[in-house]
Amino acid sequence: MARFTPHTAAEVKEMLAVAGVSSIDGLFGDIPADLKPRSFNIPAGMTEYGALSALNSMAAKNNTSATLFMGGGYYDHFIPAAVDAISSRAEFYTAYTPYQPEASQGTLQAIFEYQTMIAKLTGLEVSNASLYDGGTALYEAIAMAIRTNNRSKVIIDKGVNPIYRQIVKTYVANQEIEIIEIDLNDIYTDREKIMSMFDESISAIVMQTPNYFGIADDFSDIFKAAQEKGITKIAVFYPMSLGILKTPGEMDADIAVADGQSMGLPLSFGGPYLGVMAASKGYVRKMPGRIVGETVDRNGNKCYVLTLQAREQHIRREKATSNICSNQALCALRAVVYLALLGKEGFRKASLVNFENAEYLKTKLKGIVEIKEGATFNEFTVNLKSDAVLFAKKMLAKGFAAGIPASLYYPGKNNYLMIAVTEKRTVKEMDDFAAAFKSAL
Amino acid sequence: MNVKDGYFYSKEHEWVKIDGNKAKVGISDYAQHKLGDITYVDLPPVGKAVKQLEILTGIESVKAASDIYSPMTGKVIAVNKALENAPELVNASPFEDGWIAQLEISNPAETANLMNAAAYKTFLSGLEE
Amino acid sequence: MENIFEKSVTGRHGVDAGTPDEKSVNKIPANLRRVKDSPLPELSELDVVRHYTRLSKLNFSVDSEFYPLGSCTMKYNPKANEAAAVIPGFTGLHPYMAMIDDTAAQGALEVIYNISSLLCEITGMKKFTTQPYAGAHGELTGILLTAAYHRKKGNKKKYIVVPESAHGTNPASAAVAGYSVITVPVDAEGGMDVDIFREKMNDEVAGVMMTMPSTLGVFEKKIKQIVEIARKHDAVMYYDGANLNAILGKVRPGDMGFDIVHINLHKTFSTPHGGGGPGSGMVGVSERIAQFLPQPYVDKNTSGKFFISPDNKDSIGKVASFFGNFGVLLKAYTYIIMLGKEGLIDVSEMAVLNANYIMVKLKPFYDLPYDRICMHECVFTAKKQIKNGVHALDIAKALIDRGYHPPTIYFPLVVEEAIMIEPTETESKQELDMFIEAMKEIAMTAQSDPEKIKNSPSTTRISRPDETKAARELKLTCF
Fold this sequence. Notes:
heterotrimer, B: CATH 2.40.50.100, 9 strands, C: three-stranded antiparallel beta sheet
């Protein structure tokens, strides 16, 4: 079995003597005898080889051979090998949070560059060093809005990822915050309804584009109306779409949040992902989590430190802007390496290929199934006119993860299926998908 | 530690200097010393109404973020805009250039709940023991 | 070092992720298009690889330096853990797959079920959720569970009790969950002051958060009394598992009477900290809390098939998108099955031995505020060195010059000028002896030449940064 404790028996004996006890038990004398474990029935250890072969056999029971047309906010994007190579450097992954700047300039500068890329991508001014995932980032954005304008009602469009909305509702269950969710008009935002609700009691409005059903939108009008009432405008976005689609900043959002999974993170059954948050400068002191700032050392050399730490839990305790401590730093590192590798043109092109592929698949499915109207990015909704869950299972048997049935989170929308197409899908895969789709209907 | 005569002090180390129905508010030399290098003063909005010893606003240093309590009941009529770009004025001149807000006060008798310079000096020497 | 944007060359080609037909842009309605191109840098793959490889070399890390950062359990992270997390059968699995057809994700569900079962046995709890992404997130989940428990019973509660030695996340998590915090001081032995605790307890207290061993590195001897007092007021006992590394196989939170436990897999169960994350703060609960756990929840039927439990109306809902940081669970699971029962017990025994060894050896040179056998970490104070103007911060920086990552300093807050050393079980005696020598030498130099210590570090690429400037001028992006 594997062991990572290096002492020899002789060393243990010598060290016990230094510690002033005659046996190991002497070190645990403070634990009352009647609190000894009632059981500790853990199987015996294994070798590294044995453990990994057990893990490999479990992995083999997962279906990762189906071609993925499944999204719902989490996508099968291409990850350059260099992302894995850099994030596998132990100097990055076996370091702690960069509390000691002189011994952590690598992590600090990389995060500083990440903050820059996120700010520029979203068209906003500042970003933090990462949060857990998209849904928890949305909660933090709402908390920021409430701290800023001291109002307690929040309007959320039901086009916002339902998982995010559930996380928000879980977080606020014991707080005096009212979440008002606005029904979609079929799969489209009900703008009139939303704007009719704006008044000085509303703290924040939350909109997502592309929405959960894939509809891409421009919320400039809604945000303009919100601005007039002093409402904080929160945009949920899809990082990969920002190569070509209008940015939260261009729509005049105050805070933008996203799940950063699309930027170099594998699907990995739901995590680790990345909570992305950017904001306009006025919100920076209300921002949760770590933030890296540039400064100089005693000799005037440019360097980086964690800054604005006085807002954080280790100093401000119950008055902190958030309870977050560990974040998803290594995932943020993957994102910055990913964005740097693709670069300005590469990222824009990748974004455009996503759009193009989805448009291609739409043309292939035209006439086979009803495609819901509206501009989209890389995901769109079809109306199967029959149960989408059953259909998805049928398609899985044919080797395709065909999409996400809307009914998982929208009871009643039983026949809607959301289909996602990334830059990784080939023409042949899309043609085969369309053929299988036709035969499964 | 400098304690200025003619000012009233709270136990939370704010000072107030009263001039008719107007009152300037800041933090004491002791407070700025304890906080260290001030990096940010959150200037309260003009027009904000506040009760005595309720939170008026906040202040940050590298190592701490603290609430500033209003020594008097009143309404904010002016704030020290110079602190936006030079929060270090609170360190350099806590009683003069580092003032934070000016209030219009309604009840001057509230000073009874505060300390004068002599009492504050005694209070500080108690803390340092 | 230049930043990545300064290295950008206009027109340089990076990694190709596909070649679109530029005309297709016209199919996007004009009002939906990005107005200004994103100013990402333009670099070759080698430019990027070299830039980040060079940056990596500016970090201290467990693989390159001894990293005795108290409370953080910076033990060695076995490479097998990393190998498990990159198996394509896991990394390629879409989280929605299990919701379309659970037979398509049996392996992943099995890992979740198994690690939950193992942690139940390790901690003496009834059920676990894998959702929380980090320790503080686990705390928040625990407090939300506490609130749900009281809501169901119709209890009206307002407060969470926290000892003053607690991590800042404890009070912060309680506040996020809508509670006010009551703080209880520490007694002369480093435990919670039980008399004051008894006085402060009332029927409006929802829960009591304890870290065991405490952040002072000592075991709470009066735990049975504390649990008994809490129970009288129907307060939920919460175990902050940040320091679980000290007690594997020695005592279990469940047996002590705790209702809710969070475990930092990135501490005790050896998943790397990633320069700040991702971690995992799995939460375990007793029978009376189990019905409130978040969803989705993984279970196993009698024929051995793993499935996602149907919706449960008592559940608090979701604190994470799916099953938490699944990749981190894989690493911790690999570690636990490699070590097994004897290996886990050995972890705690050696961790505690190493901490006591360091404590005794350094006692003549640094003041020890709580002089008793410690658990997995020991807390000194720099009081002796302050007389020469040398503070805990200076000692930390001097250690960097000597090739060591510093211990945690200025925490716990109840110890002035604290220096909190957690060697972990994976360090050899030779490494510990060298560290002890370095600490001794620093203590001597602090007396003979304090300025030298105060001017460290001098061997790193940068000297001490101006943190005041960083906070006043706030430059948070490259441009």
